[in-house]
Amino acid sequence: MDNFTNLFEKIQSDVMKQFTHSQIFVSTKQINTSINELNELRNKFIHFMPLGWSLNITGLPSLGLDIVEVLKFLVHESGNIYFYEEGHKEHIEQLIEELFCKLTQMKCKYIV
């Protein structure tokens, strides 16, 4: 198992070129920032650091939407994920779309 930031770096490198049709993820400054913020939150949560949590939830839907862009790339464009069971790809696509819709609704709700 690799760590979160290394995995994100790998999808932006030649490591992704496993097949002739494989693609490398081209990130943006915004997505990089969201990945770093998510990694910080993840590390604090998963390593049970004794903290008093106070999160400003207004930015979380946007962060989630940036992460959904990475998920969409991996499923639709990377050319490295294959679904062997019938219906699995459609199910994953549906889940990603539902997540996108819910995060978009939340983002609209928290805009001030």
Structure write-up:
This protein has one domain (4-110). The radius of gyration is 16 Å and the shape is globular. The longest helix has 23 residues, at 88-110. It contains four helices and no strands. It is mainly α. The mean pLDDT is 90. The chain has helices at 4-10, 29-46, 60-77, 88-110. 4% of the residues are buried. The N and C termini lie far apart (40 Å). α2 crosses α3.
What structural keywords apply?
112 residues, mainly alpha, 4 helices, globular
Name the helix and strand elements from N-terminus to C-terminus, one letter apiece: HHHH
Got a strand count? 0
Give the distance, in angstroms, between the N- and C-terminal Cα atoms: 40 Å
Provide the structure class: mainly alpha
Rg estimate, integer Å: 16 Å
Shape type:
globular
Question: Percent of residues in helical segments?
Answer: 55-70%
Mean pLDDT: 90
Number of helices: 4
Taking the sheet with the most strands, its summary is:
none
In the residues, how many domains can be counted? 1
Ranges where pLDDT stays below 50 over 5 or more residues in a row are none
Strand content: under 5%
Secondary structure layout plus pairing:
Blueprint: H1 4-10, H2 29-46, H3 60-77, H4 88-110
Helix pairs in contact: 2-3, 3-4
Short description:
The chain has 112 residues and is mainly α.
